[in-house]
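Lab notebook, bench 4. The sequencing result for the construct came back, and we need a structural model before the next group meeting so we can plan mutations. Quick request posted to the team channel:

Model the 3D structure of this chain.
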Amino acid sequence: MYERLLTRRLSDPRRSVLVLGPRQVGKSTLLSSLEPDLTINLAHPGTYREYLTRPEKLADELRGMEKTARTVFIDEIQRLPALLDLLQVVLDERPERYRFLLSGSSARKLRRGQANLLPGRIHVHTLHPLLARELGDDFELERALAHGTLPGIYAEADPELRAADLRSYVDAYLREEIQAEALVRNLGGYARLLELVAASSGRILNVNALCRDAGVSYETARRYVSVLEDTLIGFRIPAWSGSDRQRLVSHPKLFLFDLGVRNALLRRPLNRSLPDERGLLLEHFVAGELYRRRGFLWPEMELYHYRTQSGVEIDFVLEVGRELWAIEVKAGRDVRRRTLRILESFARRLPRVTRSLVIFLGSRRQRIGDVEVLPLADFLAELPGGGRPAG
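Done. Here's the predicted structure in token form:
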């Protein structure tokens, strides 16, 4: 089991928590490691039916717990969000008696505000695929670019089995997550759109193009993209719209949550990353490393992308308090002069820019003018929760 950085945040025995995340990111493993006294797995059909027909059973079980027993783990709480109302009563009446550990994967109802998230009573966290830091000495960039970093898949030693697991994950997601939750009616249209999203993952979100190519209406395409985000399979990086004098593109970029899932959806060869996609995959990888740090690891950071209407781009703009970081990601071992000029121009126009960075695959740090050129491992080591990955 890989040590998760979120574990330290969950270790406070005074706090009840809800951990959200896509399937197989390790929510159940993480919460089970906290050694709950009572575990209720709502993913089990029989257990689900029991609590669906008689939700008060939970109250009876709580009253029947030993006095020394306190911690209750409810897995897949989104399947019965009405139980959250019962938990609110319990926490209001006896706030020190019980600690609840809740997990949710298909989180549409929870994220859409249709469920009682117990504000002030339960802390909500999101668990993502593994960071390079969490992989430690097991981190291999080529493996992460091809197979992603879902814990169970990454840990499989046999590359062919990893590839088979990824394809099975994609099929199971479409069949179980979408059909079982009845989130969309036209599964074929959704499947086509999902492949199109995978193909454009890391690029500007163009809903008009998606609806045209998938053969669905604009409103349907917009709703399907919303389903992706609400089930935590996709995330947006908004366009930066600060006080720049340039005319800026305002559309966000949409990323799938894991590179392995993206590659499996596109039926890419899963034993390697294709040369013509290497730059996109590396940018996608860095996007994940930054996005997954938002929240408890780097609460003061906001993440954006930058593009002018004339096509000038900067991969990431980080707003850290009042400071700005401009970041370009390059999959080579050399840095082109044009990349440096774009970063230098951006910094000249905006005094808030305190760091201009190029992340590349070279082995040694450089400084060219005011631009820092960092090997990927050095950059990751500097981030909150960092530590130097191997490989």
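The chain has two domains: 6-126, 132-382.
Will bring this to the meeting.
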